[in-house]
Specification:
It is a single chain. The chain is mainly alpha-helical and about 325 residues long. It has one domain. About 65% of the residues lie in helices and about 5% in strands. It contains twelve helices and four strands, in the order ααααααααββαααββα. It has a two-stranded antiparallel sheet with strand order 1-2. The chain has a two-stranded antiparallel ribbon with strand order 3-4. α3 packs antiparallel against α4 and α8 crosses α9. The longest helix is centred in the middle third of the chain and has 48 residues.
């Protein structure tokens, strides 16, 4: 089975190809595990603890501290990644010694917390439902999804921000974890989720509060940001192809140029694909605009974005199942 499951049992290899589909079904039916048992929350606790020791205070960073902050951040990231990947590897090795049905079920249960598609989908829909009540409610609901300021956003901008979040996080919350699970098993999915969480917490170019203190992340978060860029590079482009293909995108030749408008080397791809498919304008004021010349997003556009995202999530899951099935085949 190559890098994923080292087992001489071909039959087990076939059953293991069902793990991604089962994990997606669990994600939809059971939702997120309790916070105290959520591995991503554990990752966040470690990153908070380590970040307070890596990033200097923003008010008075000591001279020459930036280079030290970079190496401390890199070391803390590598230690955390080793712990997460090693724990996942050990769990997977133990599960492979259980009866086949238990191996498949427990692997799916462990993969599920590394996915968050159902939560993302429902939160985006909730923004539209809140907007139907009032703009103020829509802004409050959007604030649960994005880190940007929402107080001055118009109704269309609230909707556009929700669509952007759906497209970008379709990759981070589902496609990329499935990709790395198909390639490296549970350790691969866990490592990506750690990298993505670290980027969300550390990957800032300026100041961000952590542990109640404003800290300078210009150097301390560089390694985390670049690691996430590397691990998400191919999945982000796969996500864009899925969104474009399932949304019947007509202007594929415009996709690369639109994707490059964003500062991120990856997030622009699924967002640009969604903007082109819907024919709407998406963007962040003063930073980038995707689908320039497109119309303001309407309620039907957000609902269609959710439908396309759901289809893309299912397609990505089936591709992961197919990849695992092919690796199990006795060629």
């Amino acid at each position: 089975m190559g890098l994923l499951f080292v087992t001489p049992d071909a039959a087990l290899g076939v059953w293991l190809s069902l793990v991604p589909a089962l994990a997606l079904a669990i994600d939809r039916s059971l939702g997120e595990p309790p916070v105290r048992w959520h591995p991503v929350v554990w990752m966040g606790h470690y990153l908070t603890w380590a970040g307070m020791r890596c990033a200097p205070r923003a008010d008075a960073p000591p001279p020459g501290r930036h280079a030290r902050a970079f190496w401390l951040g890199a070391l803390a990231w590598c230690v955390g990644a080793a712990i997460v990947g090693g724990a996942a590897w050990q769990l997977q090795a133990w599960l492979l010694r259980l009866p086949d049905w238990a191996t498949v079920l427990l692997l799916a249960l462990l993969l599920k917390p590394l996915l968050a598609w159902a939560l993302l989908h429902d939160e985006v829909l909730a923004v539209e439902q809140a907007l139907a009540h009032s703009l103020a409610d829509g802004r409050v609901r959007l604030a649960r999804l994005v880190s940007r300021g929402v107080d001055a956003l118009t109704e269309a901008q609230v909707r556009e921000s929700a669509i952007e979040s759906l497209a970008e996080n379709l990759n981070d919350s589902l496609v990329a974890p499935m990709f790395w699970f198909a390639l490296l098993g549970l350790p691969g999915a866990a490592l990506f989720r750690f990298a993505n969480t670290a980027d969300a917490m550390w990957g800032y170019r300026g100041t961000r509060v952590l542990g109640g203190v404003a800290r300078d992340w210009r150097r301390a978060g560089t390694w985390a940001a670049r690691a996430d860029d590397v691990l998400a590079w191919l999945p982000a482009r796969i996500t864009a192809v899925l969104v474009g293909g399932l949304g019947a995108l007509q202007s594929w030749r415009h996709l690369p140029g639109e994707a490059r408008r964003t500062p991120s080397p990856n997030s622009g791809w699924p967002m640009a694909a969604m903007a082109l498919v819907l024919g709407v304008r998406l963007g962040k004021s003063g930073v980038y605009t995707l689908g320039e010349g497109g119309r303001d997003a309407a309620p039907r556009d957000l609902l269609r974005a959710c439908r396309i995202g759901s289809r893309a999530a299912i397609a990505a899951t089936l591709l992961a199942c197919a990849a695992l099935m092919l690796r199990a085949a006795p060629w």
